């Protein structure tokens, strides 16, 4: 199943496999979204099959739900599960405080709800995702379609107040059409380059009418597991 992987996939697999080792029989899990999280779903399905684990999974996107079902995992909604033991997800960036930028795949809203309903959030990634300061990866913000231009202008003014004047804000596209999230909303990508005060910006963005959620995950992630293509693993725990 895991033969002939590219170095990038080997790194993701190594991190995913390690995270799945922390899963115990009877747990309810949040299943993240993205290429790294997909490896976690595959590794989890393999363990469930081999060891007969009783696991319920709450997916954070239709993509992950489809993959989990295809591999035979039991999929339930967050409300059916109630409380979750662990969410395992990927990230686009993380800093040394284990704050994250997520949403490169557009799943940030369900990811944040699911991670926040979990006792622990474990992030899996390759070493390149570790940054000294968040912001190089464009910050995704999920917004309602109603009043999109007005919300974008409001965000631009807010960024200026946070010392980030003049940053480009783009509407995410899928082909020629706007990208639409699982919840039927749009994504604005904020090209900030650096975010001097991520906790403050995360709170401020969610005050803008029309903003549904932003991709800054502050004080949510408990542990990051990094994998490398040579099998090396590094773990960071939130101080
Ligand atoms: O919306 C997508 C998620 O936040 C992903 O977890 C994130 O973009 C990382 O994806 P990948 O593992 O493919 O780099």
TrEMBL record:
User: What Pfam families is this protein classified in?
Assistant: Rib_5-P_isom_A (PF06026)
InterPro entries, sorted: NagB/RpiA_transferase-like (IPR037171), Ribose5P_isomerase_typA_subgr (IPR020672), Ribose5P_isomerase_type_A (IPR004788)
Q: Which residues make up the binding site for substrate?
A: 33-36, 89-92, 102-105, 129
The active site consists of 111
EC number from the UniProt entry? 5.3.1.6
One annotated GO biological process: D-ribose metabolic process
User: What GO annotations for molecular function exist for this entry?
Assistant: ribose-5-phosphate isomerase activity
**A GO cellular-component term linked to this record:** cytosol
| HAMAP family found in the cross-reference section | Rib_5P_isom_A (MF_00170)
Q: Which family does it belong to?
A: Belongs to the ribose 5-phosphate isomerase family.
Name of the protein described by the UniProt record: Ribose-5-phosphate isomerase A
Biological source species? Planktomarina temperata RCA23
Taxonomy of the source species: Bacteria, Pseudomonadati, Pseudomonadota, Alphaproteobacteria, Rhodobacterales
**The encoding gene:** rpiA
